[in-house]
Amino acid sequence: MQIPLIKEFTYNLPIKNVWQALTDTDKMRKWYFPQLQKFEPIVGYKIQFDDTDSEYQKEWIVTKVEKGKTFAHSWAYKGYSGSSEVIVDLFEKGNETRLSVTQIGLESFPNHPHFKRERFERGWDNLLGQNLKHLLESSSK
């Protein structure tokens, strides 16, 4: 049975600022993955990374884009079975933005510490709850 991983975060900024940070390559390198090389918010775009020295090379493809609302991509690793999907939804809350991230398909990954659900949970807390929050707050000052 698939149990989606869902996390929510709130930022004290308008939705357009959060959307820009989610889809701008330079900003994504700061909060998401520094190895990110090329990205376009276009369905079917293969996200490019400089991770050839990593044991876990990312193979991600943009799967959904609704400008200002939803961004999704596959999450897979070269040479490993399994694939998940990450869906990020944005909601306006007055002058704030609520972000919901849903990751489905984690059960498809191998039974290995690198692919444990808890690792992804901590990862989203770090990426969205700390890194993105810090980037957004520092750029709004």
Automatic annotation (TrEMBL):
InterPro entries linked: ASHA1/2-like_C, START-like_dom_sf
A Pfam family recorded for this sequence: AHSA1
Domain Activator of Hsp90 ATPase homologue 1/2-like C-terminal positions: 13-137
Please give the Gene3D superfamilies that the UniProt record associates with this protein. Answer: 3.30.530.20
Into which family does the record put it? Belongs to the AHA1 family.
Name it: SRPBCC domain-containing protein
Task: Specify the taxonomic lineage.
Answer: Bacteria, Pseudomonadati, Bacteroidota, Cytophagia, Cytophagales
